[in-house]
Specification:
Layout: E1 2-6, H1 10-22, E2 27-31, H2 35-46, E3 58-62, E4 73-76, H3 88-109, E5 114-117, H4 122-132, E6 140-142, H5 146-160, E7 167-168, E8 172-173, E9 179-180, E10 187-188, E11 191-192, H6 193-199, H7 207-225, H8 230-244, E12 249-260, E13 263-275, E14 278-282, H9 289-313
Parallel strand pairs: 1-2, 1-4, 2-3, 4-5, 5-6
Antiparallel strand pairs: 7-10, 8-9, 10-11, 12-13, 13-14
Bound molecules: nicotinamide-adenine-dinucleotide.
Residues 6-12, 32-34, 37, 77-79, 81, 95, 98, 102, 118-120, 122, 143, 147, 175, 227-228, 232 line the site of nicotinamide-adenine-dinucleotide.
Length: 317
């Protein structure tokens, strides 16, 4: 496996750390417009290979896309960070353009790669990549709500005093403010969440409050350290693992909505089967009527943003 990471910032480097510590790839490429920064990071990582647990993965870094030749997986974390008081739509324009340019460069050297888009707004950026490059929809995965779902699992795990891995639930929709939680599938230890709480003398969880807490989780981290890195990097590594081991894992990643739930033309997080071909299948869930209405409303809001960004950037939508 050859893995590329574009963007040698806080998130890109955190992803490299997971790949080097846990992964089983033969080559890791770190690319940044600031090539020296990427080189410095991988030179630093290189010293880990002298230690007993370090893996001798071939490391390449710089600013030249040719390094990505025949990469199997490319993670895009490059882009601008939101500035104080900057409207989100402005960041969407800037980063959608950057991500499409990057994907066009990647396409020249690794047209068969699976792309994992992390740069925010990741769902919008993935949507514009699908519509403005030769990458097929199944090759382009937005990291979407995997991190939001991890946050949900941790919060419910703390409440139920269970390992978060024994919590089942999804955050779906858009990574960010337009996400929702289908309460009908939330569970702990294989039991419906209300049943679990009642049987264990715990207060029931208010689904609306839970969703608010999930939405605030990223903000609470950002307020303290001015970025978020570890949770998102672990989420990206989870997707890398599903692709590289052809796991057919169901993950709430951002996928092109193309006649799913009668919706067309956005990227939203939906439970999807992830394997060697990227998105192998988008699962259709038996959502309640209310949940379906919520999903449709989110899609319509996102379509509005897509059309505004397309108008200004002249990207296809
Ligand atoms: N999807 C998520 O869950 C999630 C979570 C955290 C951060 N993010 C996003 O990830 C992105 C990166 O965050 P970060 O904290 O690493 O930022 P950062 O500022 O630390 O790093 C960004 C890097 O991208 C590089 N870069 C910018 N434009 C480039 C281009 N055109 N080509 C190559 N490299 C380029 C910069 O030189 C910099 O090294 C941001 O958009 C952030 O909002 C997403």
């Amino acid at each position: 496996m050859k893995i590329g990471v574009i963007g040698a910032g806080a998130v890109g480097v955190a992803v490299c750390n997971y790949v080097l510590a846990l992964g089983n790839c033969r080559e890791l490429v770190l690319l940044d417009k600031n090539g020296a920064r990427a080189e410095g990071e991988l030179m630093d990582f290189g010293h880990a290979s002298s230690l007993t647990f370090g893996k001798n993965i071939r490391l390449n870094a710089g600013d030249d896309y040719a390094m990505l030749e025949n990469a199997d997986i490319v993670v895009i974390t490059a882009g601008a960070q939101i500035k104080a008081d900057q409207p989100r739509i402005e960041l969407a324009e800037v980063n959608s353009r950057i991500c499409v340019d990057i994907a066009r460069n990647v396409e020249q050297y690794a047209p068969n790669a699976i792309l994992i888009v992390v740069t925010n707004p990741c769902d919008l950026a993935a949507f514009f990549i699908i519509n403005n490059t030769g990458f097929a929809a199944h090759q382009v995965i937005s990291s979407g709500c995997v991190v939001d779902t991890a946050r949900l699992m941790k919060i419910v795990g703390d409440h139920t005093q269970l390992d978060p891995k024994n919590v089942f639930g999804y955050i779906l929709g858009e990574h960010g403010s337009h996400c929702f939680m289908p309460a009908s599938i939330l569970g702990a230890g294989g039991q419906p969440i209300d049943f679990y709480c009642d049987n264990n003398q715990l207060p029931r969880i208010d689904p609306q409050q839970l969703l608010q807490d999930v939405k605030r989780a990223g903000y609470e981290i950002f307020k303290r350290k001015l970025n978020t890195t570890h949770g998102v990097a672990a989420s990206v590594y989870r997707i890398i693992q599903a692709v590289s081991l052809n796991e057919h894992s169901v993950l709430p990643v951002g996928v092109l909505v193309d006649n799913h739930y009668d919706l067309f033309g956005s990227v939203l997080s939906l439970p999807s089967v992830i394997g060697r071909n990227g998105i192998e299948k988008v699962l259709e869930h038996p959502f309640t009527a209310e949940e379906l209405t919520e999903l449709k409303q989110i899609h319509q809001q996102i379509r509005g943003v897509i059309e505004s960004v397309a108008k200004i950037t002249e990207l296809n939508c």
